[in-house]
Amino acid sequence: MSAKTLTSIGPANRCARPEQSHPLTWRLRDDAQPVWLDEYQQKNGYAAARQALAEMAPEDIVQRVKESGLKGRGGAGFPTGVKWGLMPTDESLNIRYLLCNADEMEPNTWKDRLLMEQLPHLLIEGMLISARALKAYRGYIFLRGEYVDAADILNRAIAEAKAAGLLGQNILGSDFSFELFVHTGAGRYICGEETALINSLEGRRANPRAKPPFPAAVGVWGKPTCVNNVETLCNVPAIIGNGVDWYKSLARPGSEDHGSKLMGFSGKVKQPGLWELPFGISARELFEDYAGGMRDGYRLKCWQPGGAGTGFLLPEHLDAAMYAGGIAKVGTRMGTGLALAVDDSVGMVALLRNLEEFFARESCGWCTPCRDGLPWSVKLLRALERGEGQAGDLETLEQLCNFLGPGKTFCAHAPGAVEPLASALKYFRGEFEAGLARQSAPTGSDQLAPA
C-alpha cells in the first residue's frame, strides 16, 4: 500500500518541491518499505524537532499550531491548538500524558496505517514536538490490535530514536525528557472515542467517560492528558519547520480548513487508493481524476465521503468541496476523508443492515438509546431485507435516527451509526418500502422488542 503524490495542491504550488507541497507523504519510498531513521534524517527528519527544542518555548509551539488552523484528522475536526491550550499551565502539575489515537477501526479507513507502517519516524517526531508543547513526559500510541505490522515497525523505530538520543532523558542535550510506548488494543471500535481509549489504557472497560471533566484536566490515571490522532500529529513537524503562512497556502482557495489531507476512494472504482490532497479539492476531482471513476460495467449509485459513520450522498453531490464546511453544505460530515463508492448492483437495505450490525456489535452498552436502539434497527432491517417488514417499520427507523441523534446519547457512537441510515431512508426510500410485506399490519409488542 502506498500513497500517490501526483497532485496539484494549488496554482501557487504546482511546481513546488514535494517536501513543500506534500508534507505527509513526500518521504515515502517507491517500494513501500518503512523509512527508517538514517533515511528519515537524510530527508530532513527531526530538523523540526531540533528547532522546537532549541529555539521555541512550549507556549510558542502551541501558539504556532493554533495559528496554523490545524484540526483533528480523526473525524471530529476539533482545532488542535485549541485542544492543546486546554492543558493546565500550572507547573506543579508535572505529570502529563500525550496519547496518540491509532485505534483506526472506522470501516473503509486505512490512512493512519500507511503513515505508521511506512513513516513511523514522522509520527514519533510529531509526538516529540507535541509533547514538548504540552510539557508531557510520557506518551502512548494506542494502536489497533489488528495492526501487527505497524506495532513491530513502530517499536523498532522507537528503539532507533531512543538509541539516537531522540527519545528518553535530556533529548538532544535539552532539559526535556520524553518516553514513548506502543500499547495495542483488544479490538473495540469504541476505543476511538478518547475517554474510552483512556479507560482501556488504564485496564478498565472501554466505556466513554462523562465530560466534564475533560481529559486535559483529568485524563489517564487522573492526570492532564491530550489525545490526538495519528495524521494530526504527523502534520506538526512541517508546521514547525515551514511556518503558518506556508501551511495555510496548501489548501484550495475557499476552503475553511488549512493544509493537506490524506484522502481516498474505495469500492468498484478503477484506481482505489490513498492520496495526499489539498483541502477544498472537489469530490468529483478525487473520484474521477484520482480514483478513475467507476469500473466498466458499473454505475455510481451513491457514496460516503469519510467512513461508515458518514451519510450517503448522490452522484450530483460530487461537486462538493472536500473540507468540513463543504461536505456539511450537502448534508453530512467529511469524517476521515476516505470515501466509498457504492455501485448500482448494491441493495441499500442489505448494505445498511450490514453497517448497523457492525455498529450494534461495537456499542459499549453504556447508555440505553445506543444499547437498545441499534439492535432494534438491525431487527427491522433484517425483516425488510427478507421482505417481511411491517407497516410503520420505516417510520420507526426514522424515529430511531432521531432518538439516537447528536446530543441524545452518552457519546458520538450512536449518532454516527444512524447517520448513514437516515440518509439512505431519505434518498432510497423506495428500496426500503419494497421490503414491506403487502399484507403487513402493526404487530404490537413484538415489533418493539430489540433483537
Automatic annotation (TrEMBL):
Keyword Isomerase appears in the UniProt entry: no
PROSITE patterns: COMPLEX1_51K_1, COMPLEX1_51K_2
E.C. number(s) listed in UniProt: 7.1.1.-
Top-level taxon of the source organism: Bacteria
Enzyme class: translocase
tRNA processing found in the keyword field: no
Keywords: 4Fe-4S, Flavoprotein, FMN, Iron, Iron-sulfur, Metal-binding, NAD, Oxidoreductase, Quinone, Translocase
Cofactor: FMN; [4Fe-4S] cluster
Catalysed reaction equations from the record: a quinone + NADH + 5 H(+)(in) = a quinol + NAD(+) + 4 H(+)(out)
Pfam families, sorted: Complex1_51K, NADH_4Fe-4S
Function: NDH-1 shuttles electrons from NADH, via FMN and iron-sulfur (Fe-S) centers, to quinones in the respiratory chain.
Name assigned to this protein: NADH-quinone oxidoreductase subunit F
